[in-house]
Design a protein that fits this description.
By secondary structure, this protein is of the alpha+beta class. It is built from eleven helices and 15 strands.
């Protein structure tokens, strides 16, 4: 039986790790409280990290900066002007979505109404507040809860260097809370890919690759899977979806080249699982085998995978690439033959 998020939340509550914030008043979205065991676990993790990163190193110092900082800092960093998400609202059900995560000409993912989206509007992700008991009309007492801890380090760099008498290079560590407007359940965090569109997936992946430059990246195109279930294995609709996925793969490859990380990172792309005759989606080995493409650092050039790769093997391969032990009893197995021997595998 598949484990549900509700089961995990219930277990955490019963064991005293995490409680829903404001539960006696119905809860408060996206906010959680650490219970008796949870707070001890959190403290142990923080202490272990601080011991390893700060106390045991001669090139690191610590800092605990204020949650409220001068608003000029956030103007200088660009947060006030550009720390935004484009959002649209459904005028029928009042659902709210990231504008770049939905097709504005398609039906609303929640209620199915067509043409119900508002024009995209930018919403700043910072929490705004005022300093003092009275709001000033000129806005001179507006402040923001810090959306990240890094700015406190930046503006205190000279103070930290002078008082600790450190020479470059050295680092500054900080543990603390940051505040952002996050996705609220049933609104922003409902990531939707309209009609299984590999074009949309590839476009999102391309933006992510160029911005984040990941060490390991896994992408799945679901178009052919949806077409197989809807129209049958080998149907004209599914054959067209294969061609669409080829074009989407080209989009991803070009993004990797523009990011300049083709030799530094590993990319894995999978698509629809197999089928036969009119059957699509059984548990037979033939149906569980998937198209599997990998390229980048540590991949053996020109290597052709001879053994079948199943839907479970990608996760196991990602764990193996990151040097994370694959749990005992895990269904998938790493596709190790496609990669160079371990001594040359270095993906960070």
């Amino acid at each position: 039986m598949a484990l549900k998020m509700e089961d995990i939340v219930s277990l955490c509550k019963r064991r005293g790790f995490v409680f829903q914030s404001s539960e006696i008043y119905g809860g408060f979205a996206s906010c959680w409280d650490y219970g008796p065991l949870g707070v001890e676990l959190k403290r142990n993790v923080k202490d272990a990290w601080w011991q390893s990163v700060v106390r045991e190193r001669d090139d690191m110092v610590g800092l605990d900066s204020s949650i409220l900082m001068h608003p000029k800092i956030w103007e200088a960093s660009g947060h006030v002007a550009t720390f935004n998400d484009p959002l649209v609202d459904c005028k029928n059900c009042n659902g709210r979505f990231r504008a770049d995560h939905v097709d504005l000409s398609a039906p609303c993912p929640t209620c199915g109404t067509v043409g119900s989206f508002t024009e995209p509007r930018n919403f700043n992700l910072m929490f705004k507040t005022t300093v003092g008991p009275v709001d000033k009309e000129d806005g001179s007492n507006i402040a923001y809860l810090r959306p990240e801890t890094a700015q406190g380090i930046f503006v205190n760099f000279l103070n930290a260097q002078t008082t600790s008498r450190k020479k470059l290079p050295f680092g500054i560590a900080q543990i603390g809370k940051a505040f952002r407007h996050l996705n609220v359940p049933n609104t922003l965090d409902k990531f939707q890919i309209p009609a299984y569109s590999c074009k949309v997936v590839a476009a999102e992946a391309a933006k992510y690759i160029e911005a984040e430059k990941p060490n390991v990246c896994f992408i799945h195109f679901a178009d052919s899977d949806g077409a197989g279930h809807a129209y049958g294995w080998g149907s004209p609709e599914q054959v067209k979806s294969f061609a669409d996925e080829d074009e989407a793969l080209k989009t991803v490859r070009e993004a990797v080249k523009r990011a300049g990380i083709e030799k530094d990172s590993v990319f894995i792309l999978s698509a629809d699982h197999g089928g036969h005759a009119k059957t699509h989606g059984s548990n037979s080995p033939e149906d569980m085998t998937i198209p599997w493409i990998t390229w980048g650092n540590a991949v053996q050039p020109g290597f052709e995978i001879k053994t079948p790769v199943t839907t479970y093997d990608t996760a196991a391969t990602a764990l193996w690439l990151l040097d994370v032990p694959v749990p005992a009893g895990f269904d998938g197995k790493p596709v190790v033959d496609a990669f160079k021997p371990a001594p040359t595998k270095n993906i960070g």
